Amino acid sequence: MSRTIRDGAHIEVARSAARLFLEKGVAGTSGDEIAETAGISKRTLWRYFRTKESCIEPLFARMSQNLAAKLQKWPLDMTVERFLEINYDMSKIDAQEIEDSKLVVHLIARLDEEPALLEPWFMSTRATEDLMAGVIATRLELSPSDFEVRLCAATVAAAMRVIDETISRAAVKYGQVPTLAESNDRLAQAIRRASTLSFCDPVTPRGR
Hints:
By secondary structure, this protein is mainly alpha-helical.
């Protein structure tokens, strides 16, 4: 068993924990099992993760990082609808990201039955709020710490969380899987309706 976690291996621990949680439930999964499945020692696991539930944080964080990477490429002259249509194309998403997304969807769908998963989930939505503040600030040439920017980012991140939870529960519990176009449309509508600042449409940099 490894006594250290190599670079990038936190996500492997998260994937192992997620699969165990989905198979056995959080209460039925021990930290020892997560460590064994991930191929690390128990001591190493507790060196890097404060609780067994926190082991899935890197998986949620990976989703936020992927979102951030896409949003940072949002052209100023493009609407949110067009941006989502172009960037959320299954042909442009690699196999590992798809598998990670499936794990996240199933974890989100279990939030009602597994309240212990709420803390890592809410931590990831806070990360989404921070990245949205950066996106909004860039598009409107404001500071990410500006109150109005933070307020808008908070409402948009909350709307995105509701969409994620609604779609995940419907897909896993009722087999209601939306098409990619439908998911993009619902997400775009949620972002628009939650926005307190006008950043969803094309913007023109000052001085032009």
